[in-house]
Structure prediction request, 361 residues.
Amino acid sequence: MRLLKELTFATALTAAALYNMAPAEAHHAMIGDLMIEHPWSRETTANADVAAGFMSITNNGKEDDKLIKATAEISDTVQLHSMKIENDVMTMFEMKDGIVIPAGQTVDLKPKSLHVMFMNIKAHPKMGDEFKGTLTFEKAGTVEVEFAVEAADAGME
Amino acid sequence: MRRIHALRMGILGLAAILAASLAVLYFQTGEERHKLVSLADIGGPFRLASSNGGVVDSKELKGKPYGVFFGFTHCPEVCPTTLYEMTKALTAIGDRGKDFRLFFITVDPERDTAAMLKDYLSNFDPRIEALVPTPDELTRVAKEFRAIYEKVPGSDGEYTMNHTATVYLMNREGKLASTISYDETPENRIAKLGQLLTREWLWV
Prediction:
């Protein structure tokens, strides 16, 4: 009987935790065969000039698509970048031809990897804020997204 | 009697194994020590303009440990994250590191001015200050630290910089004590910083 009570309590706690997490974790956008999950950005300091945006893009279609453009209300110049760290040297380069989203696959834009780069940012949203943006794909077209702003050290695993 | 003998042999055997392991450990540390000697060549003398006004001369830093990081303000990830993580580590270290200074050397003197850098750093720990080299001074100081930097042109007339993401921890003699890599865990950052400062304290 006691075990049952404890189990019920634990389940309730888990459910509550999941429910609380839902608004931040589950936000997504869809266009055509593409699903964009959890677009997010890190909180920046008041004097930062740049910020980066991250997300997962899943292509459920039978043809490859390509992310070719991004916009954001906090910046007039948004670029698609890739970054890698080798021997503790950071190398960053613009993905001028876009980021291919292969059919049936998920591409993660994440710290230390692919990202959307917001240049000369006009606003510095704080943790918990959201800001609007768009993503344009070669085939699927343009979709509106909301970037959730997370902690300055989010995604450092 | 026999049992005691067996016990003695056992203890002797254990002692022998212990001695052998210690010997192996000793020689390994010896090698490591040798490696550190060559690493100590990293980080040389510098005299650069500071975002806090005036110049910082590495000669005047004698007796006080310090850190060096190469970065730039138009840096989307590595620089703000490192500054944020180092701010957290410095806060954790507290007064133990009250004389510690972390120098953020800009690899983008074309865009980064002392005033901009001061502004940029005002949100981080006050022990972090920027050094603003001229292009020639940058070439020299990067060479001293074996640091790499490179301009990467992008579209829209913008450009970005590739650069070494290591935090160099220098001891009171101005020699490299250890490094903190970008992937370092917060615990390791604090531990390495603490080790640098504690060791310094023991040598006083």
